[in-house]
Write a structure and sequence with these properties.
Number of strands: 10
Strand order of the largest sheet: 8-6-7-9-10
Low-confidence stretches: 17-111
Structural class: alpha+beta
Distance between the termini: 79 Å
Mean pLDDT: 76
Largest sheet: 5 strands, mixed
Strand content: 5-15%
Number of helices: 18
Oligomer: single chain
Length: 431
């Protein structure tokens, strides 16, 4: 069909306007000022739009016009939760399927960063992370970890699995625009010291000289920054540090409970565990007397050597099976072995940066770099415990002490944690 000349002349300015609009639209999402930085939004899980989600770059998203509400149709296994843009309440941003496929292919093993980074010192890492290509390398791994959390949370929600939606232990540092849900026995000491310094908390505790109380003071004073995640602005960088759940629980046992040198843990679980589960073939009255005698060593009421004939002093603290029974049968809980699901509710908190204990120094420095925090005042990880580090070989030796029922209960306790952060928690090898 031939188009009349008058119509063709009218179409020219319209075409020019269309091109200009397209250029403006693309330049908005390719703004070099925001390229490669965090773009935050909130994900919706069952009507609870309290979570955070980030994309590495505005060019890595597809924009879909839709409304987000609690009864939205469930996504399929390869999709991710609806994410509402912070600038337009009617625009949903989803990861590009091609990007997701690339990330899954590029990062089949989340913690296996390049050998160059793993072997570098802290100073070298900080210098390397100033280079864009290395920063992008770690960006890719962080994107993979975030996508994994989103994927697991969505599938669990769709299957009717109950997931916690209230991360009640979040510390929000408003001046630094960063929020942290601390997981204890997973490299938390470094961040506790760092945030204490930059927030002024360290000065409030500097006069405390009693052994062990300085760290307790820092912990208690930092609680003033505890907040509900719903009150944290979308522009905030959120993060948590994770570790293999079995390695973490063994580390907590070895540091807090086994030595029987911390009265608070002896009172809350150690004394109970060894009295209830240690096989002592004596009458109740005699057992209580021997238990009280062992208490004297813990409370330092008498300065004497361990009595080799007292079963409650050999060992003085509980064994790992005794500890495990108290935790799994009697519900003796603590923040040092609470599951990530219970303590931080990752499906609701949705950390933008997931630091892994296996690549701790790399991930910590990446977080400093991406969040605009200074390296000054941050200490590289060092093990502060008397028992030394707990590695894979160590926790496996402890798990070999457990019977099948205890092993299965540990697996059930940390099942979601293992799935969210891709840890192998199969216990059949110990049957």
């Amino acid at each position: 069909m031939r188009i009349p000349p008058a119509v063709r002349r009218a179409m020219v300015p319209l075409s020019i306007i269309s091109v200009l609009v397209l250029v403006m639209f693309r330049s908005h999402f390719r703004d070099p000022a925001v390229e490669g930085t965090f773009v935050t939004a909130r994900a919706t899980y069952g009507g609870d739009s309290t979570s955070h989600y980030v994309m590495d770059s505005p060019t890595d998203v597809e924009v879909i016009r839709t409304d987000v509400h609690s009864d939205a149709a469930p996504l399929d296994d390869d999709a991710y939760p609806a994410v509402t843009s912070t600038t337009d309440s009617t625009t949903t941003i989803l990861p590009s399927p091609t990007l997701l496929a690339k990330k899954k292919e590029d990062h089949p093993k989340h913690q296996n960063l390049t050998k160059e980074l793993l072997g570098a010192s802290v100073e070298e890492l900080w210098s390397i992370l100033q280079q864009e290509q290395w920063l992008r390398e770690v960006d890719g791994h962080m994107q993979y970890r975030r996508n994994k959390v989103l994927d697991v949370c969505q599938r669990r929600k769709d299957s009717g699995y109950g997931i916690s939606t209230n991360p009640s232990h979040v510390l929000y540092f408003k001046d630094n625009e960063i929020a942290w849900c601390p997981i204890y026995k997973a490299g938390s000491s470094n961040w506790k010291k760092y945030f204490s310094k930059i927030s002024g908390v360290t000065k409030l505790c500097e006069n405390i000289k009693k052994e062990g109380m300085f760290g307790t003071c820092l912990h208690n004073k930092l609680l003033r920054f505890q907040t509900n995640i719903r009150k944290v602005p979308n522009s905030t960088v959120t993060f948590m540090v994770v570790r293999h759940p079995y390695e973490r629980v063994v580390s907590a046992f070895r540091d807090k409970v086994e030595p029987a040198d911390k009265k608070v843990y002896y009172n809350s679980i150690g004394r109970f565990a060894k009295y209830k589960y240690r096989n002592v073939s004596l009458g109740e009255e005699e057992r209580l007397k021997l238990l009280k005698d062992s208490d004297e060593l813990v409370y330092r009421k008498r300065n004497r050597d361990i009595n080799p004939l007292n079963p409650y002093e050999n060992p003085l603290g509980p064994t790992f099976p005794e500890f495990a029974k108290a935790v799994l049968y009697d519900g003796r809980g603590d923040m040092h072995w609470a599951s990530y699901q219970k303590w931080c509710a990752p499906c609701a908190f949705q950390p933008q940066v997931i630091v892994k204990f296996e690549t701790l120094n790399i991930d910590n420095l990446y977080l400093l770099r991406r969040s605009g925090l200074n390296l000054e005042g941050f200490e590289a990880h060092s093990n502060p415990t008397k028992t030394g580090g707990t590695k894979q070989s160590t926790w496996k030796l402890h798990f070999e002490m457990l019977d099948k029922d205890l092993l299965d209960r540990f697996k059930a306790k940390y099942e979601l944690d293992c799935e969210l952060f891709e840890y192998d928690c199969d216990v059949s090898q110990f049957y």
